[in-house]
Amino acid sequence: MKKMSIICLVALLLCINGITTAFADELPEAVDQEQSGILFETDKMKIDIEFSPESYKYIRECTSSLIDNGNGVLYATISTTTLTTVSSINMDMYIERWNGSAWVTAGSWTQTGTNTSKVTSNKVIEAVKGQKYRVRTVHTVSKDGFTEFQQTLSMELTPR
Asked: Where is the signal peptide (predicted)?
């Protein structure tokens, strides 16, 4: 009975390996690998997988988003959420504009919270139509003399 179990297990492993190999030809090849993620691209799909290799003691989630409201108006929403109440959460936010060769700061603001687990900031931004913008945020969390940082980037938008 033991011999039969081992034979079945080996056969199962060979089948799984055969299935994996059969589907490997259909998976896209990684075209770009950075420290923060992997980009897979084919003529039918684009998969951008982002990951953070850091392990945080307090930071749960940090986000920066930018929405085009039309007529050259952008709306930014930024937030920092922690796993527990912390001494302070600070967000330094920068609206950046692409000048054709680099991102330049077009404006900035700061939002801070104390003895909290979440801070959110919303801002209406007057932008120049046809130019590309993004929001870059440096999130800083502190508790008991320990400080963590994370930077986030919104998607790039060209106001209509």
From this structure: 1-24
Burial of 101 (0-12, 13-18, 19+ CB in 10 A): exposed
- Asked if 58 and 83 count as a contact pair (C-beta separation under 8 A), the reply is yes
DSSP 157: B
CB atoms within 10 A of CB 87: 16
| CA–CA dist 81, 114 (Å, integer) | 13
SS3 state of residue 139: strand
119 CB-contact burial (10 Å; exposed 0-12 / middle 13-18 / buried 19+): buried
Domains of the chain: residue spans and CATH: 2-50 (no CATH), 59-153 (2.60.40.10)
- Distance (Å, rounded) from C-alpha 159 to C-alpha 66? 10
Give pTM, 2 decimals. 0.66
